[in-house]
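stage 2 :: seqdesign
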């Protein structure tokens, strides 16, 4: 078994992701998000030849050992540092031991569905309660490194539907870096709103939707003084790609047949693809799983493009959905997502408000506490299993992107039967009784 390359020999840079423009390169220390030649989004590229100096067995052994350690390298992200960002000095790592989240068998839910081998990757069981921590630890660490090296940055900024703002605010606060977040006013849950406020970010609630916030934050950060932290910045993608590696690692280095993930701005989809591609390149896996992107029916531009055979993409005006984090009509990472889906023979499915609420509640009856975005992914799984596209013997991982604890009002309204356009098939209301033993016994009988 070969030894790992010295981290000082590992190299990474920004490269254009568009076909024919891959030789356009920029250092990670440069404030740049799009290719200056063609305007395409950039990706973090790695010197794969250096990474190939170690065998697949050596990488697996190293990742297994780090999973059981402590400190930043025990993070599900920084434990794979050579594959993510090897250029940040130890003193500039900003980590809350993110990642390393449970891959939980779905038990009763899976058995009732008729697909016994289903796992829920619980990415919401992390520091700020969503998978966004995985990307923000990388981005904020890089910004801290840049500021230490003299790059004149005033702070970081993002547009958000809730979870990105929470993660950005927490990691920026830990690093002592000012953070500004742009939120669509009245369109996120109160638990999501209070997180960036509590962590000291400057919160701007704008009278628009996410797409409007995204347009404004790009204009505000255009002069380079505030570092843009949305997923069009591929440093975010590098952290998020570790979910794919973790899933395979937790399954004994055997990829599942399917991964189902909710999609809004679509950075998470391309992140999955990047993690799978790197494992394939370095020999840790022999095939890619198929990816299903699940969209809310009220914010479904990728689904509509998929139905047209990718012949054209048209942004939509996203309508109000309980899955507010993916209420996005013009996803920044559309082209990245399409390339990922085409490479893995992937699919796109959609879920109505009724579909997603009942799928989440059905899973909750097996001991989970699913947020509405996970409900979208579970609803897509139910549709594909019922259609026979996902077979009984297939091994399926559903990615839960956030904690259900961020959406208490939605949960309460479901069980009260008060959600618009939803018939609560799994409602479970408390039985109100007098303080009387006979009445209790009658109810229990």
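stage 2 :: out
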């Amino acid at each position: 078994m070969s030894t790992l390359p010295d981290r000082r020999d590992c190299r990474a840079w920004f490269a254009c992701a568009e076909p024919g423009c891959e030789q356009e390169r920029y250092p990670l220390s440069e404030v740049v998000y799009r290719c200056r030649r063609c305007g395409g989004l950039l990706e973090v590229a790695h010197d794969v030849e250096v990474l190939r100096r170690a065998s697949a067995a050596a990488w697996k052994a190293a990742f297994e050992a780090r999973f059981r350690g402590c400190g930043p390298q025990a993070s599900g992200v920084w434990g794979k540092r050579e594959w993510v960002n090897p250029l940040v000095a130890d003193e500039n790592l900003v980590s809350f031991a993110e990642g390393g989240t449970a891959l939980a068998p779905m038990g009763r839910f899976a058995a009732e569905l008729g697909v016994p081998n289903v796992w829920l990757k619980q990415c919401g069981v992390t520091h700020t309660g969503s998978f966004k921590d995985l990307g923000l630890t990388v981005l904020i660490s890089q910004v801290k490194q840049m500021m230490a090296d003299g790059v004149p940055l005033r702070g970081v900024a993002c547009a958000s539907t809730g979870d990105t703002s929470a993660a950005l605010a927490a990691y920026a606060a830990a690093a002592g870096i000012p953070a500004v977040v742009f939120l669509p006013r009245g369109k996120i849950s109160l638990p999501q709103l209070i997180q960036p406020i509590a962590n000291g970010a400057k919160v701007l609630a704008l009278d628009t939707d996410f797409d409007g916030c995204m347009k404004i934050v790009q204009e505000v950060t255009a002069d380079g003084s505030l570092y843009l932290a949305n997923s069009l910045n591929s440093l975010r993608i590098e952290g998020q790609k570790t979910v794919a590696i973790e899933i395979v690692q937790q399954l004994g280095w055997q990829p599942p047949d399917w991964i189902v993930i909710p999609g809004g701005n679509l950075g998470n989809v391309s992140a999955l693809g990047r993690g799978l591609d790197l494992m394939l390149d370095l020999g840790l896996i022999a095939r890619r799983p198929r990816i299903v992107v699940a969209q809310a029916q009220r914010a479904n531009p990728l689904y509509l493009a998929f139905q047209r055979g990718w012949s054209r993409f048209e942004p939509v005006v996203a309508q109000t959905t309980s899955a507010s984090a993916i209420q996005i009509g013009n996803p920044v990472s559309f082209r990245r997502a399409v390339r990922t889906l085409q490479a893995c023979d992937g699919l796109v499915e959609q879920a109505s408000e009724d579909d997603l609420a009942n799928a989440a509640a059905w899973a909750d009856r097996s001991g989970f506490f699913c947020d509405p975005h996970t409900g979208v992914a579970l609803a897509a799984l139910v549709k594909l299993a019922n259609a026979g596209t996902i077979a009984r013997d297939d091994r399926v991982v559903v990615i839960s992107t956030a904690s259900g604890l961020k959406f208490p009002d939605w949960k309460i309204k479901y069980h009260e039967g008060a959600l618009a356009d939803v018939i609560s098939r799994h409602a479970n209301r408390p039985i109100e009784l007098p303080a009387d033993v006979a009445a209790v016994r009658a109810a229990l009988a």
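stage 3 :: structure notes
- Residues 155 and 226 are 5 Å apart (CA to CA).
- Residues 132-148 form the longest helix (17 residues).
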